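DM from R.C. (forwarded with permission)

"hey, sorry to bug you on a friday — could you get me a structure for this? deadline for the figure draft is monday and I only need the backbone to look sensible"
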Amino acid sequence: MADTAAQLRGSLTRRGLALLIALGLAAWARSYGEAAGVAPAAGAAAAFALGLTLLGATLVGALAERLGLPRVTGYLLFGLACGPYAADLVSRDMARQLQLVNGLAVALIAFVAGLEIDARALRARAGALGRLGATVLLVPFAALFAFTALAWPWLPLGPEIGGAGRLAVSALCALLVLSFSPTITVAVIAESRARGPLSETAIALVVLADLVLVVGFVLLLQAARLALGSDAAPEVGVMPLVVWELFGSFAFGGVVGGAFALYVRFVGRELTLALLALCATLAVLGLRFHFEPLLAALGAGLVLRNLAPALGARLHTAVEHGSLPVLVVFFAAAGASLQLDTFGQLVPAVLAFALLRVLALVQGCRWGVAWGGLDPALASGLWRSFVSQAGVTLGLVAVLASEFPGWGEDVQALVIGLVCLHQLAGPVLFRRALERAGEVGAAGR
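My reply, with the result:
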């Protein structure tokens, strides 16, 4: 026991010193260039940010794992500490350049999620999961909607709005505050190599809930336009586009997944490179044909998992070899992009909404598990899978801010503050739930 503790302290010390040296050299190089009046070219700045991120975030992720935290949290903290709102080693422009890997990372994470979903097992629990999902969404949404509508005059969210306008605005605000991050939830499951009732239920619910919230946002945005008399023309083609993105993405991913299964079975070489190429294809073609990369990659993983289960172990090995650099850059860039100045201005409102959101999620999971006839122990860990917020949330709130300058921008600032809080707390809480459920490392057993 003493030897193990000594080894842990030694490892932490060595990694900590390596991190300090790397950060010191990066700070010196940045300050030397500025003092000499040398402005690095865009390519050089991107290369500097990429090298610093790969080295530093990897070390911090390893340190976080040694301390019992998710590696994802380490990556986020490194990006936050080195980003433009802290040490400024990674500037805003550098952070934006690092985010070029977003599509590839999201596709890779979603592909891993698809590999973990057993369609037959979920189909046997479809009714219970449907009741659970409906409760988990409706209970928090109702609580947040009521709070926003009643407390609007005292919230820092723009001018006084009454009648149907306040109801529409409160519904939009509640939906955005409730929104989730399937990407982070799935990343924690993949990193932990978790398998079991909690992880399987969390993956299914968080992805489906995110789809429901996106569709709900489109409908409520139209309702807000009508209630507030917005000059924007109704987008009659929005719903067909949403349907295309939902079902078309799954179909496209299924076709690509089937083709990749044939490659693995009959060629089976350089699987890591082939997997990264697959995810890049899903990300690029998704943008070109208006598919959602997350859904397409999830569909590809589902096809492989359920039509060719024997290939699962080989693909997991390929994912482990190829995913680390992509995920390091993705989450470090996300941490560097967190707008801490916005969070600081809205602390009371952010904390109030965050507390209500968590309490409502806890209660919604309890009622949903009971209504679905599932194991009551599932509720204590399931709500933690919904805490994280990121990507899609920021995209939706940006649409709201551009549509309704004024109160829409205030809601955007509030939601960004919530994302800052939940993006850091969510992975830690969910990892703890997986550990308590005994599912961490289960995929490897």
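R.C.: lifesaver. The radius of gyration is 22 Å.
me: no worries. The domain at 104-444 is CATH 1.20.1530.20 (Na+/H+ antiporter like fold).
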